[in-house]
């Protein structure tokens, strides 16, 4: 398999991007193609023993920064690492693309046919999905690609999310639900009320509305939301988790007795961290575009990059893009 990685994607590029790619090349045995400033990439690679690894470097003259406006860079930076990497997938030179860069730019480049991959025929709006970092790993879709949605978009999000969970995670007949402010039928805003009957009649295993607390507990395998709601939910959960961790550390250091208790509980805290660590998730698959793309967080470290590459290869192995294309055409939701 050939996975292309945007070496200029993360906030601290190219260090974590290169380090994560080396880890992935060692673990998976695939060819990793690093795209970006070749001088910087080779400098980072020189710190690793890569003789037995299949790693290639492709130069990119331009870099898309986090504060760049997507509407501008899509056309004005055609030689960026994002453009080159996505087009390598489009042209069959790579199987999947991974970036921890500017999400809006990645979305724009990927979605535009002629510039990037374009949408799968029949898909109204591609969506970002993410395995939530709780023990049950529920899949949230959309996680920020579409702030404003129509009911038929949510229907397709449910279908694409169900395919991802079924093919990649091996969940049989995934439970699909709508994120709402109440479980009862008829709850939610107009969007939720109009989307619910579409999902109920879709043939999916639709279990109705769920509140965020049920989502966190894994009541549904696929939780559907508009991108605004989904992104707010994810960022709020990350903030609460981070705050709670800081609070626990503060109180454990308050006196010798609590410090001793913390020391004795270290293994438990390590297990909890492993379950809740977003780096173990890696990134968010962009479902609905005509090729496998994973978009990670700008703060991604080498572990997150490695897992993002792992996600990309699973999408390829399990024919997720092809399955979405077939089911969208056969679902009548186009």
- Unreliable residue runs: none
Proportion of beta-strand residues? 5-15%
CATH topology of the largest domain: Isopropylmalate Dehydrogenase
Task: Indicate the structural class.
Answer: alpha/beta
Strand order of the largest sheet: 3-2-1-4-11-10-5-6-9-7-8
Overall pLDDT confidence: 91
CATH architecture of the largest domain: 3-Layer(aba) Sandwich
- Radius of gyration, Cα only, in angstroms? 20 Å
Secondary structure: helix percent: 40-55%
Number of strands: 11
For the terminal residues, how far apart are their CA atoms?
A: 31 Å
Supply the number of structural domains: 2
In CATH, the homologous superfamily of the largest domain goes by the name Isopropylmalate Dehydrogenase
General shape: globular
How would you characterize this protein structure?
The chain is an alpha/beta fold and 334 residues long. It folds into 2 domains: 1-123 and 288-318, Isopropylmalate Dehydrogenase; 129-278, Isopropylmalate Dehydrogenase, CATH 3.40.718. 47% of the residues lie in helices and 15% in strands. It is built from 13 helices and 11 strands. The chain has an 11-stranded mixed β-sheet, sandwiched between helices. Strand 2 (31-36), helix 2 (38-45) and strand 3 (55-59) form a beta-alpha-beta unit. Helix 1 (15-28) crosses helix 12 (302-317), helix 3 (70-76) packs across helix 5 (103-111) and helix 6 (151-168) packs across helix 7 (190-200). The longest helix has 26 residues, at 227-252. The model has no long low-confidence stretch (mean pLDDT 91).
């Amino acid at each position: 398999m050939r996975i292309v990685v945007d070496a200029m994607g993360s906030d601290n590029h190219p260090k974590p991007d290169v380090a994560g790619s080396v880890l992935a090349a060692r673990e998976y045995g695939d060819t990793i193609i690093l795209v970006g400033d070749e001088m910087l990439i080779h400098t980072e690679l020189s710190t690793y023993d890569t003789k037995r690894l299949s790693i290639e470097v492709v130069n990119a003259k331009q870099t898309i920064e986090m504060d760049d406006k997507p509407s501008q860079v899509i056309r004005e930076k055609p030689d960026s690492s994002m453009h080159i990497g996505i087009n390598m997938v489009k042209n069959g030179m790579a199987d999947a693309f991974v970036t921890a860069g500017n999400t809006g730019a990645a979305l724009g480049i990927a979605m535009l046919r002629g510039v990037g991959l374009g949408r799968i025929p029949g898909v109204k709006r591609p969506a970002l999905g993410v395995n939530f970092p709780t023990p049950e790993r529920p899949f949230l879709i959309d996680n920020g690609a579409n702030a404003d949605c129509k009911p038929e978009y949510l229907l397709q999000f449910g279908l694409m999310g169900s395919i991802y969970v079924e093919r990649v995670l091996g969940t049989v007949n995934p439970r699909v639900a709508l994120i709402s402010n109440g479980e009862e039928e008829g709850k939610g805003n107009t969007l939720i009320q109009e989307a619910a009957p579409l999902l109920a009649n879709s043939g999916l295993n639709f279990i109705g509305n769920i509140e965020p607390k049920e989502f966190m507990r894994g009541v549904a395998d696929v939780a559907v939301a508009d991108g605004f709601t989904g992104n707010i939910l994810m960022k709020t959960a990350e903030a609460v988790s981070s705050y709670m961790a800081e609070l626990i550390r503060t109180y454990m250091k308050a006196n010798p007795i609590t410090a001793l208790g913390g020391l004795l509980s270290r293994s438990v805290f390590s297990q909890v961290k492993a379950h809740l660590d977003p780096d173990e998730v890696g990134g968010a698959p962009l479902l609905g575009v005509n090729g496998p793309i994973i978009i990670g967080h700008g703060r991604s470290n080498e572990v997150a990059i490695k897992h993002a590459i792992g996600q990309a290869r699973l999408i390829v192995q399990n024919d997720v893009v092809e399955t979405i294309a077939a089911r969208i055409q056969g679902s009548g939701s186009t």
